[in-house]
Design a protein that fits this description.
Radius of gyration: 12 Å
Order of helices and strands: EEEEEHH
Helix content: 25-40%
Number of strands: 5
Strand content: 25-35%
Low-confidence stretches: none
Number of helices: 2
Structural class: alpha+beta
Largest sheet: 5 strands, antiparallel
Strand order of the largest sheet: 1-2-3-4-5
Number of domains: 1
Mean pLDDT: 96
Length: 86
C-alpha cells in the first residue's frame, strides 16, 4: 500500500487500481479502517474511538488532496504526500 501520510501511529494509504468509491485505508496496529473520501465516512473496519476521530478529522482537513491522490492512482501516477495531523 503506497503510504501518503503517517501520524500518531496511524498509517494512511491508497491502493492503485482499488475499487470504487474513492477511499483510503488507515492502519493502526492490528486495526484497519476503509474510509470513503466523498462523503467522508467509515466504510468498513474497526478502530478505537480516538483513532477513528483523528482519522476523520484529518480526512476533513485534506479531503481535496485525498481526492487528488485517488485520481492520480486511477491514472497510474505517483502519489503525493499529505501533511500529518498535528
Amino acid at each position: 500500500m503506497p503510504v501518503i501520510s503517517q501520524f500518531y501511529g496511524i498509517i494512511i494509504g491508497i491502493f492503485y487500481n482499488d475499487h470504487a468509491p474513492p477511499h483510503f485505508h488507515a492502519v493502526y496496529g492490528e486495526y484497519e479502517l476503509i474510509v470513503g473520501i466523498s462523503p467522508i465516512t467509515i466504510i468498513q473496519g474497526k478502530a478505537p474511538n480516538r483513532v477513528r476521530s483523528m482519522i476523520l478529522e484529518w480526512a476533513a482537513l485534506y479531503q481535496q488532496e485525498l481526492l487528488d491522490n485517488w485520481n492520480r492512482c486511477r491514472q497510474a501516477q505517483a502519489l503525493l504526500s499529505i501533511e500529518p495531523l498535528e
